[in-house]
Fold Sugar ABC transporter permease.
Amino acid sequence: MALTVLFVYVGTLLWSMRISVSSSKVFPRDDFIGLTQYQRLFETERWNISLNHLVIFGVLFIGACLILGFLLAVFLDQRVRGEDVLRTIFLYPYAMSFVATGLVWQWMLNPQLGIQATVRAMGFPDFKFDWIVDQNMVLYTIVIAAVWQASGLVMAVLLAGLRGVDESLWHAARIDGVPRWRYYASIVMPQLAPAFGTSFVLLSVGVVKVFDVVVAMTQGGPGDASEVPAKFIYDYLFNRANIGLASAASTVMLLTVLALLLPWWYARALQAKKEAKR
């Protein structure tokens, strides 16, 4: 098993990095051109546009998921009736593939078939909701679909953290006249820092590799208005037959993921050592 992991994952990773410093096009070449492919990559307008879109998508997606997931977790933490059913409903979208999510939202946002057509058929002919074909708004439709799917995961992680908070703290806060919002802001949220950290890392990795929901909803369009790095890599690898440039782009994204994961792993290791010393 260990040999399989080393060969399949580490081996292909090293091979991809090796290709990224070669002049490979359609077929791999065993030469060395240094960082030329990386220079070409960051001189490519489409790549820079995709990075800009990724930053916008990431900030909105992570922020919205954390806020919505926290609110849903707080709601379920009130021991509401039908909690098990509600928890399943909120978490169910995450069980769907991003392709299915993208296709559903593509249909809902289609101006000729979805929300816009339905509202107009109800007697509001001037209603307009055509974001999915608007170059200035299409990226936000992808954010909406992605948040709808992933916020349930954040809810589950934060709810588990909330259930670990001592209930006596709330009773003491009520006796002291502390309002509920202040209780959550000053007492609960600091204790949820590890849960928020885990959620942030999971969402960030999802941002870096976002691909299928974009392809299912917009194919990166209209034009390049919803282009993302993963689709850039796919197109240059399979459609433009430039495996050298695609490998350079994938290496950049790998380093981005490692930059997110390594601090988290380091913090977890320090926390484990502290707990072991107690």
